[in-house]
Amino acid sequence: MTTEAPPGNRPPSRPRRVVARVWAYVLDAPGTFVYLLILGANTFALVHMSPRVRKYFLRTNSTNLAELGHHPVKVLITSAFWTQTPSFLIWFVLFNLFHVPAERWLGTLRWLVVIVIAHVGATFVSEGTVDLLIRAGALPHRDTRTIDIGVSYALSGSVGVLTWLFARPVRWYYLGVTGAFFLALLIGYRDFTNLGHFTAFLLGLACYPLTRSRSTRGVLPPRFGVRQDGPHG
Known about the structure:
Structural class: mainly alpha
Radius of gyration: 21 Å
Strand content: under 5%
Distance between the termini: 57 Å
Number of domains: 1
Oligomer: single chain
């Protein structure tokens, strides 16, 4: 004869365990998933705009020279939450690969500092270069209103700062691969956008002081070569 366990003592069903794990994963990086939620809503709005309205909207919310000259704070914020093309699924994967571990490791506040430094710094370097080239006559004046919008500068900052998550020699392998990727984009395309990506990556790398004393426990499985807890692991 068997007796059933009281309802309160029954183990949670498999679907509930999956939901609980997913929810715990989201709560470990709340900033990233709020960012994704806003990006998803904006992407939905973008695909329902007519091509003409979409182009006007993106241009007026871009961090181009014209918009930076009139209302810099507004476009520095809004440009970080839109993408030029509706590619949410790609960004969902990349956010989970780089933003999630960076936020889990650094904490939401320090992660925000890193991505703001990367986004703002890369914008000023890339658009400053465009300004210099226009003044030198190497670029047409219409480039003051080019579309420069997206989440990639912030993401590049997370890619850079994650270098310090890993112990040697994995750290140097990671730095070599990611650094070569951004440098290849810059050399291959030679445009201001990829100058911004490379700059944002370097700015993320320069955020090493924010990583000191941060615990690496639970950020990634040990087999990925994460450093030991402590400031110099």
